[in-house]
Specification:
The chain is an all-alpha fold. It has a domain of 155 residues: MetI-like (MetI-like fold, Orthogonal Bundle), CATH 1.10.3720.10. The protein is built from 11 helices and no strands. Helix 3 packs antiparallel against helix 9. The longest helix is centred in the first third of the chain and has 37 residues. The radius of gyration is 22 Å and the shape is elongated. The relative contact order is 0.15.
Length: 268
């Protein structure tokens, strides 16, 4: 592990510790309004100040990390699972089935997937409960973000299908189920793990885009994208730089995941 990867792991450990312990670490609940102190600058009571409704920004940032950084891996796991099913089936079967499946994947990839996600989310009801909006947002991300990973998995399985150890296992009479479970799966695992790590920052950014457009996580539940809607007013940022805290957390987490995913891609 390089020094940069080690630093990335430490940053992610700290960030995810905050996300997991948001309820214990946050000074207040994310929805509590201190009506007598709206738009307050940082102070001993409010380390990042308060928003226009008097809600503690630091508390909302902690809960936003919990929302965005814990559910993005869930969406990435769903996406990777779909990619594994489609890619393995196409790569292992080969022939016309692989060509037909990859043609469908190419057609799916030809669509601008972020705009597709925005379109699908915009069609769905917007006035839903915050918890439902979280599930809907990340389920859409997971179900629509699998195509690129499926191509990588298909290529890897195709190469493994004709490898020496697979041919040897077939010659020894290994059943197909055992062949897939004992020979193919362990060798595809590094590819799937790399695709999983690559997908997490993509989905974090996608959720941020949706929430900034008002199509993601519903208020009052915070997310990193939802908090960054305050950045639309650029004129006040120079006087209130603490409002950049959600953007700083997003940049740090995405960069850390990118460093780790590149390392896994090289290993794979």
């Amino acid at each position: 592990m390089t020094r940069l990867q080690f630093i990335s792991v430490l940053l992610l450990i700290v960030t995810y510790s905050i996300a997991l312990g948001a309820k214990l670490l946050a000074p207040a609940d994310y929805a509590v309004q201190f009506r007598e102190t709206p738009n307050q600058p940082p102070s001993a009571q409010f380390l990042l100040g308060t928003d226009e409704l008097g809600r503690d920004r630091l508390s909302r940032l902690f809960y936003a990390c919990q929302t965005s950084l814990l559910l993005a891996p869930a969406a990435a796991a769903l996406s990777t699972l779909l990619a594994a099913i489609v890619g393995t089936a196409a790569g292992y079967t080969g022939g016309w089935f692989e060509k037909l499946t990859m043609a469908g994947v190419d057609l799916f990839l030809s669509l601008p997937w972020l705009f597709l996600i925005i379109t699908v989310r915009a069609v769905l009801p917007l006035n839903v409960a915050p918890a439902i909006s979280v599930l809907v947002t990340f389920a859409i991300l997971g179900c629509l973000g699998w195509a690129a990973s499926a191509r990588v998995v298909c290529a890897g399985v195709r190469n493994l299908r004709s490898s020496g150890f697979m041919l040897n296992a077939r010659a020894l009479g290994c059943r197909r189920s055992r062949l897939l479970a004992m020979q193919l799966a362990p060798n595809v695992k590094p590819v799937l793990w790399a695709q999983f790590l690559v997908s997490i920052p993509v989905f974090v950014l996608a959720e941020a885009n949706l929430s900034m457009l008002g199509l993601g996580v519903a208020e009052p539940l915070p997310s990193l994208g939802g908090l960054m809607r305050e950045l639309e007013n650029f004129s006040g940022l120079s006087a209130q730089p603490w409002r950049l805290a959600p953007l700083a957390v997003l940049v740090v987490c995405v960069s850390a995941f990118q460093v780790l995913s590149r390392g896994r891609e090289v290993e794979a």
